[in-house]
Amino acid sequence: MRKIQYPPIRKMWYVCPVCKTKLVIYDNTAKCTGLFIKCRTCKNEIEVKI
């Protein structure tokens, strides 16, 4: 019986480029453009590009 091979999945944090606060957790299979998030620490609006 053969084992099922799963894609390697890593979970990483998307951090604010201004204050380095952790904002969103995502995995390596995610694709995202045009998503804007307001940082809860520095109050800047950041575009998420994964």
Descriptive notes:
The protein has one domain (11-48). 0% of the residues lie in helices and 38% in strands. The chain is built from no helices and four strands.
> Which parts are unreliable, with pLDDT below 50 for 5 consecutive residues or more?
none
* Distance between the ends: 37 Å
Strand order of the largest sheet: 1-2
Largest sheet: 2 strands, antiparallel
Helix content: under 10%
Mean pLDDT: 91
Number of domains: 1
- Count of extended strands: 4
Q: What fraction strand? A: 35-45%
Sum up the overall morphology in one term.
Answer: elongated
The count of helical stretches stands at: 0
How do the helices and strands line up, and which of them pair or pack?
Elements: E1 11-15, E2 22-27, E3 35-38, E4 45-48
Antiparallel strand pairs: 1-2, 3-4
For the structure shown, list the relevant keywords.
single chain; 50 residues; mainly beta; two-stranded antiparallel ribbon; two-stranded antiparallel sheet; 0% helix; elongated
Outline of the structure:
The chain is an all-beta fold and 50 residues long. It is 0% helix and 38% strand. The protein has strands spanning 11-15, 22-27, 35-38, 45-48.
